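Action item from last meeting closed. Structure (217 res):
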């Protein structure tokens, strides 16, 4: 596990720089759209069966940033939802956010690093977990990983080769249980980051905050 002081971006967000042709082709083939967390996504499945929501209603900052799905019933959730999610050299980061539901992640291609703040655990200084996702399981890279509800996560793109400088993008699937709704999602603010991990670690991690979360103090 890397220390927070050693976490550095491999690629800088460049929203006005066109993606390489091979990544543009992938985005088109999968019909991906820009995601408010950063990167690109498309919902690939929403289970038709529903379950009573297990979540108490709390106002989510994300509701002001993304419209609620047409036909949404706050009393129930679809049993699961799945998406493709892609980080690219021009859109290389997914800012700190949390879901109320459990999220199962499966790697398709590329390498990246995840940083998870266990905000729902007891104690003042919350545990920080970080790991690399990729194909080299002999070096501890993960092909599948699970983030339970209530934990903040961020992700960023790494080069395809450990000592390289280029990436074909990090493509994964995410399945949320019960199914995803924007009212069950929120971004981490800079003030809340300090509360969770202390000022020193917050300063080391603030580059992973979403621009949409920084103003939610």
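Sequence:
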């Amino acid at each position: 596990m890397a220390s927070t002081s050693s976490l550095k971006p491999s690629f800088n967000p460049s929203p006005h720089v066109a993606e390489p042709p091979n990544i543009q082709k992938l985005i088109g083939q999968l019909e991906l759209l820009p995601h408010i967390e950063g990167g690109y996504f498309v919902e690939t499945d929403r289970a038709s069966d529903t379950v009573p929501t297990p979540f108490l209603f709390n106002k989510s900052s994300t509701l002001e940033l993304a419209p609620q799905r047409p036909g949404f019933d706050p009393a129930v959730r679809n049993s699961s939802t799945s998406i493709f999610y892609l980080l690219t050299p021009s859109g290389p980061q997914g800012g700190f956010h949390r879901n109320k539901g459990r999220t199962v992640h499966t790697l398709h291609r590329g390498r990246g690093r995840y940083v998870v703040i266990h905000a729902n655990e007891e104690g003042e200084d919350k545990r920080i977990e970080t790991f690399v996702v990729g194909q080299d399981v002999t070096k501890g890279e993960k092909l599948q990983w699970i983030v339970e509800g209530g934990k903040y996560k961020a992700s960023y793109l790494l080069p395809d080769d450990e000592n390289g400088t280029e990436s074909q993008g990090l493509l994964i699937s995410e399945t949320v249980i019960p199914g995803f709704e924007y009212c069950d999602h929120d971004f981490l603010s800079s003030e809340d980051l300090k509360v969770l991990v202390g000022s020193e670690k917050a300063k080391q991690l603030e580059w992973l905050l979403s621009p949409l979360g920084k103003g939610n103090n």
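Note appended to the action item: The chain is about 15% helix and 35% strand.
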